Amino acid sequence: MKNYDIVIIGGGPAGLAAAVSAKRNGIESILILERDKELGGILNQCIHNGFGLHTFKEELTGPEYAQRFIDQAKELEIEYRLNTMVMDISRKKVVTAMNREEGLFEIRAKAVILAMGCRERSRGALNIPGYRPAGIYSAGTAQRLVNMEGLMPGREVVILGSGDIGLIMARRMTLEGAKVKVVAELMPYSGGLKRNIVQCLDDYGIPLKLSHTVVDIKGKERLEGVTLAEVDKTGKPIPGTEEEYSCDTLLLSVGLIPENELSRGMGVEMSGVTSGPVVNESLETNIEGVFACGNVLHVHDLVDFVSEEAGTAGKNAVAYVKGERQTDGGQEIRLNPADGVRYTVPVSINTARMDENLTVRFRVGAVFKNCYVSAYFDDERVIHRKRQIVAPGEMEEIKLTKEQLLKYPDLKTVTVKIEEA
Amino acid sequence: MYDVIIIGGGVSGAASARELSRYKVRACVLEKEEDVCCGTSKANSAIAHAGYDAEPGSLMAKLNVRGNEMMEQLSKDLDFPFQRIGSLVICLSEEEMPGLQKLYDKGIANGVKGLKILNREEVLEMEPNITDNVYAALYAPTAGIVCPFNLNIALAENAYTNGIEFRFNTEVQNIRKIDGGYELCTNQGTFRTKYVVNAAGVYADKFHNMVSEKKIHITPRRGDYCLLDKSAGTHVSRTIFSLPTKYGKGVLVTPTVHGNLLVGPTAIDIENKEGTNTTREGLDEVITKAGQNVKNLPMRQVITSFAGLRAHEDGTEFIIGEPEDARGFIDCAGIESPGLTSCPAIGEMVAGILQEKLGLEKKDNFIATRKGILDPDTLTREERAELIQREPAYGNIICRCEMITEGEILDAIRRPLGARSLDGVKRRTRAGMGRCQSGFCSPRTMEILARELHVSMADITKSGGKSRLVVGTNKDTL
Fold this sequence. Notes:
The complex is a heterodimer.
Chain A: E1 2-9, H1 13-24, E2 30-33, E3 49-51, E4 60-61, H2 62-75, E5 79-81, E6 85-89, E7 94-99, E8 103-114, E9 118-120, H3 123-126, E10 136-138, H4 139-149, E11 151-152, E12 156-160, H5 164-175, E13 179-185, H6 194-201, E14 208-210, E15 212-218, E16 225-230, E17 243-246, E18 249-252, E19 256-258, H7 261-265, E20 290-292, H8 303-322, E21 332-337, E22 341-345, E23 348-350, E24 357-364, E25 368-377, E26 380-390, E27 396-401, H9 402-406, E28 413-420
Parallel strand pairs in A: 1-2, 1-8, 2-5, 8-20, 10-18, 12-13, 12-18, 13-14, 21-28
Antiparallel strand pairs in A: 3-4, 6-7, 7-8, 9-19, 15-16, 16-17, 21-23, 22-24, 24-27, 25-26, 25-28
Helix pairs in contact in A: 1-2, 1-8, 4-5, 5-6
Chain B: E1 2-7, H1 11-20, E2 27-30, E3 47-48, H2 59-78, E4 82-83, E5 87-91, H3 97-110, E6 116-119, H4 120-126, E7 136-140, E8 144-146, H5 148-161, E9 165-167, E10 172-178, E11 181-186, E12 189-198, H6 204-211, E13 218-228, E14 239-242, E15 252-255, E16 261-264, E17 268-269, H7 280-293, E18 302-313, E19 319-321, E20 329-333, H8 339-358, H9 381-390, E21 397-399, E22 404-405, H10 406-414, H11 422-429, H12 442-453, E23 472-473
Parallel strand pairs in B: 1-2, 1-12, 2-9, 5-14, 12-20
Antiparallel strand pairs in B: 3-8, 4-8, 5-7, 6-7, 10-11, 11-12, 13-16, 13-17, 13-18, 15-16, 19-20, 21-22
Helix pairs in contact in B: 1-5, 1-8, 2-8, 10-11, 10-12
Pfam families (chain B): DAO (PF01266), Fer2_BFD (PF04324)
Organism (chain B): Mediterraneibacter catenae
Protein name (chain B): NAD(P)/FAD-dependent oxidoreductase
């Protein structure tokens, strides 16, 4: 059995940034296991620009952004295996993997960083009634066909869900010669970034129908059309509002699900809200020395934040492997999401282990205008930041400092909430 | 001229073909779809019923019990998944007890072994997720679950190996009586045969009525189902039925042989013989009714829904044999539930009729067994490592949800009557059947199909016919 200090599961943006950070923080023995034929993950099929504004202060395409990290990983001589599927990780951090050349093999790790990313929700998860013809794709599958294979999934397109991939694919399919008829969104607000609505729909005159869903799918062999209907506040279709759209393609952009089968298999505690692991300030799961970052932890909008988060996970894994972590004498503080805040990452803070600065990321459950993002240290409001708008489609954050937390020696809970103006 | 033409490559047709292939015979299966197992056989409850539902003395009762008995050995001979997990019929009140008792009595009359009426406590001990309102249940230990796809495919492959021809994309349009047999006009030309086996599922009435004045009538009775993720697969350990009504066995909840949880079906009579669309009302009904017997069903774990059509004949009985006024035409009609369970016995019966009429002799070289697609999960670690060394394709995972390797997909395509479409691969290997519903693996499986079949990606279909997955290349219309 081979031994590594840190084994990273996934060679996408999270895995790469974690590896680079770990190496720079002084660990030599690192292995990235990647199931695809190249590093970079899903960025490789995201050929549009807009990546890297935060990280590199310039606009890059997905593959360009990935390449920057691949170059760093190669320069740092970080070891990786491609076309390698991790089958299982034991609680004792023995990783079982498989590829064509080495067959089934085991690796023992001192620390594991989970960076498997996420997958798209399927039609089945929505239980949309109708036929099951060819021509129904998740937006990401269509993106792969168009951007990697040069193949057109269809000519006349309806998109359900206004997630970012769906919006990006509305533009992409239009540019490749398809007619995108409409984007329907179940919720009364878009699930994607505002800039994508403007640049991918408005600029091409593609209508966005909020509070609408697909209620029927027609066509036995190839898709022939869908029926849209308006939904009420509970998400139920309103009779009489049905509209028929003829189309040969239905793209679904209805949410992303962190891909945590391996995490569950090894006994990592999961959050019911994010479908990702429950982590502390070090992005460490309930299993000591097992860290998580990127979309496997919680679904991000921007890869820049994935890289940043993964860098933190890499650094913390190094501290764990080197045994440099402070464990004694810290305060254990819970983070409590309330009043419009759905979750926080992390969910707990130990002040001894934490760095000087900590970014707490979260999402809200509805659109709030002219509101405040507040943090209460027990009962005292410490952070009160005015925001014109916060929306479920855009991840939010607050920054906490060690200095600030240590001023409250009996602090038990930091509550993050949205307060109306 | 063929000795026998079998119309339909579903379980009835394939089982008949396989049993017939024991004899020296020239026979052919005509299938309108691009693969076997494309109609009723692919979308059902995947249950091997114990046999207490059918009326004592009926053909249904006889073939059900016989089919159930045969299934275990057949699953070993032909290497398809079958598990005898038992079933419970849930009774919710004292008022329903006569109904449950009647079912028990019918089962005894039909020769079902091991039947037992359990009280509330016994039921809850066996299945803790049964509703707290349970009053009693009928326990049938001989009931089982089966993979309907691989049962059907295994029967067809074995028949093919033993010399039965199969013609796909061949739709029978008309049947004409000729001297000494029948002439079948199809979209692929005309075929002559001494005997016809009419195993055409929901279309069996159409063909029967072309040759017989004693008309039959089949109603497509649609059943909507929801399939839940494997994480819900152990919610119950046995098949959980409601007390039956005149429309069938009600909504059941059952584990599948692949470890998922299956919930359904509805029973909605429709006109359209191709009407396999689910409806909102149907899916809602499934969810509501399933919850009456089983509590805390994790319906958020649904990964797909589908509908199948039962071939319900007005007389609610299997029609197997020669109509009086159509010599040489063997019906295998009205094969609704328990058709899947009965299929081994149906095949035996149909082949028996043909053997007698044609005076067929047994072959010396009949091959009674067939090896299915190797599932690497069943191997030890060492065996698996050896396999990958020998065939590296078994080290390459294509379907991440079900962990299906390229090796298994290649086997599915290359074997006799191999897969030609994405659904063909899916039914044989489960690639694409998991929680992401082929989002990740479909482009990869398409590539493998294109490479193996020497066609372009644009020619790959979901399920044959017009079901192409891509329509062209980027900017080709600009």
